Amino acid sequence: MGTKIQAVVVAAGLAIASSLFAQDWSQSGGADFFTVQQARGAPTVSLGGTVIPYKEVTLAAQLPGRVKFLAGIEGDAFQEGTLLVALDDSELLAKRNSALAQLANADAQFRAAGIKFDRELWSPQSEQAPGGMGVPNLFDQMFTQPMESFSGTRHRGVERRADLYSSEIQINQARNSIMAARSQIEAIDAKLRDAKSLAPFDGVIMRKFVEEGDTMQPGQPLLVFADVEYLQILVDVPARLRPGLNEGMMLQAQLDVGNQVVPVRVAQIFPMADAQRHTVKVKFDLPQGVSAPGMYAKVLVPDFTAPARNFPVIPSTAIRYNGSLPGVYVLDAEGKPSLRLIRVGEHLDGGFTSVLSGLSEGERVLRNPGGGVSSAWASPSAGGVR
Questions:
Q1: Which of 225, 241, 275 lies at the terminal end of a domain, its last residue?
Q2: Which end of the chain is more exposed for a tag (fewer CB within 10 A), N or C?
């Protein structure tokens, strides 16, 4: 909490100092110059990072097959639930029809076994009854069967229990066949779902790896799908700078395109540091519509472990670039301009820029040098910041 308050105080001090510097300029001999002044603040470290989508997934093939449908190309936007890629599922549909036939056979066997069990339970002797008149059958039930049981040659009770048990076994086997067929159908339905890749959220296709007709194997990537409405900057922050960051903290970032400076917010700080590089991954939220995924950006991270220092501040309009080298026109005692190379720091509010080296307090620089200004090169003064 203390580092967050300190960062707010430093940022407020820089904003106040910038507003005061804007009033400290004068006219001399028709030249609009600015007297270099010092601003005090916590030193910052510029760390490079990559602009990434807020959410990104790589859709991969879950089963072998041929690509029969591809929704679009890179940059096409789709809503959640839209079909993006589909593999050929004709073989799976044939297996599902076969499993449905097995389920129907198992159900018929189950019903037949139930009817047989009822017959054994309520009419155990029906299949042994002779045709013709009923007297022989009646004589057999009243005299022959009791005598067989009495003499020990047959045990009618044991035989009946065995017949009932056999019928129960047939019912259980038919029931298990039904469960196996249903399980097989569920497994095939799961593979049919895996043959189709749907958009997990609203987003765009970032990269596709397949075309219609390609043959895929399980694990092969199909395409990269991402939500690009909200973007973040992923930065590897040295472990020594980690204590100075807190989630929700506001910082500044410089985009690679146009050198635009935008505010960013600390969105996520990873809990573990990289064991090899000793850095912590940190994600910063970007304002909408200022960049694109894959772009390079620099985030100015405060270094509260280093002592606060003074640094010169000049108007951003005073800086002229000779190729990639920044420089300013410094006025000598006679008011003649001399071009001097400087090291540029961070951009401040009010159109000012800090200088890391090349200038010292009290020197005068042209505030907005025109294209016709020409001079010789000048060396930094002895008292300049190194």
A1: 225
A2: N
For the purposes of burial, counting CB atoms within 10 Å of the CB of 370, is it exposed (0-12), middle (13-18) or buried (19 or more)?
exposed
Task: Return the C-alpha torsion angle 52, 57, 58, 62, nearest 10.
Answer: 170
Residue 297 lies in a domain: no
| Spatial CB neighbours of 94, under 8 Å, sequence gap ≥ 6 | none
pLDDT of 222-277, one tens digit each? 999 999 989 999 999 999 898 889 999 999 898 887 778 899 999 999 999 988 99
φ/ψ (deg, to 5) at 176? -65, -35
Q: How crowded is residue 79: how many other Cβ atoms within 10 Å of its Cβ? A: 9
Coil, helix or strand at residue 49: strand
pTM: 0.56
- Among residues 80, 72, 83, 74, the alpha carbon closest in space to that of 55 is found at 80
Domain containing residue 61: CATH number: 2.40.50.100
Task: Calculate the alpha carbon distances from 132 to 66, 137, 139, 143, 145 in Å.
Answer: 69, 10, 14, 19, 20
Assigned domain for 215 exists = yes
List the one residue out of 378, 380, 357 whose CA is nearest residue 311.
Answer: 357
Q: Which of 37, 34, 43, 38 is nearest to 300 (CA)?
A: 43
Q: Which domain holds residue 107?
A: 91-194
The 10s digit of each residue's pLDDT in 279-330 is 999 999 999 888 889 899 999 888 877 666 677 888 888 888 877 788 899 9
Q: How far is CA 261 from CA 95, 152, 252, 318, in A?
A: 60, 106, 7, 18
Please indicate, yes or no, whether residues 69 and 206 belong to a single structural domain of this protein: yes
Same domain, 78 and 204: yes
Cα angle value 123/124/129 (rounded, 5°): 85
